[in-house]
Amino acid sequence: KDQSDCGNCWIFGTTSVLESAVLINEGAEYNFSEQSVALCVDRSWTYLYDHSTDPCGAGGNSFIASEVFIKKGSVLESCNPYNTTALNCDGSCVCDDCASVKRVDGYRLVTNDGLDLDAIKTAVYDHGPVTMSFYYDEGGICEDLTWGTIYDYYPCTESANHLVSIIGWNDSVPHQAPEHEGTGAWIVKNSWGTGWGNSGYFYLSYNSSSVTEIAYLEYK
Fold it and tell me: What are the pLDDT tens digits along the chain (220 aa)?
């Protein structure tokens, strides 16, 4: 998927985790609406709607996105398609009345410590894709002839600014930053379209980029 020019990675990354959970558990492929999440966020998160370009440019996290899935439920993309123009709503945003398809009943934070590789691997192995926030800077992108797009921002003291989903890992991927020894990377699904990275995916080197906010969703 492609979030386009809005800062809605937090919605796309969280939605993809729910879609993956349903696909793994039921063998059913759903396309859930990111637009619905953006427009139906609890208004007590006032910062999400306090500017003319909000909620397009407001930003958020996986907990806020999952809160919509808990209170309202996920709805189909076909009922509320993604439209960035409508997300620059200057306080006039209105939640949809689309029927709920799946309702989340558990937000499970695995860890906020990206160095805890075993906990993250266990969560992915046991529950499927998980949300993950990290610090993104174009300077951390490397293009490898064997592996394609590898992101390795090391060392990193900055705070996370982008949310995606981890779908797996490969311990053989070489680290790219000059000071970063060793191998291993997360296989990550991004939300910048198929024209970016490895057809929309990329590798993120272990122990780099201030990885945090690892979580999975339970639903009914």
Answer: 999 999 999 999 999 999 999 999 999 999 999 999 999 999 899 899 999 999 999 999 999 999 999 999 999 999 999 999 999 998 788 999 999 999 999 999 999 999 999 999 999 999 999 999 999 999 999 999 999 999 999 999 999 999 999 999 999 999 999 999 999 999 999 999 999 999 999 999 999 999 999 999 999 9
Q: Which amino acid is at 66?
A: S
Quote the DSSP letter at residue 17: H
Cβ–Cβ under 8 Å, residues 18 and 107: no
Predicted TM-score (pTM) of the model is 0.97
CA 167, 64, 40: angle at the middle one, nearest 5? 110
With 0-12 CB in 10 A as exposed, 13-18 as middle and 19+ as buried, what is 153?
Answer: buried
- Sheet with 104-111: strands ordered across: 104-111, 212-219, 130-134, 162-174, 183-189, 201-205, 148-151, 141-144
Phi, psi of 191 (to 5 degrees): -130, 40
Strands 201-205, 148-151: pairing kind: parallel
3-state secondary structure 126-145: HHCCEEEEECCCHHHEEEEC
Distance of alpha carbon 206 from alpha carbon 183, whole angstroms = 8
Strand partners, 142: 150
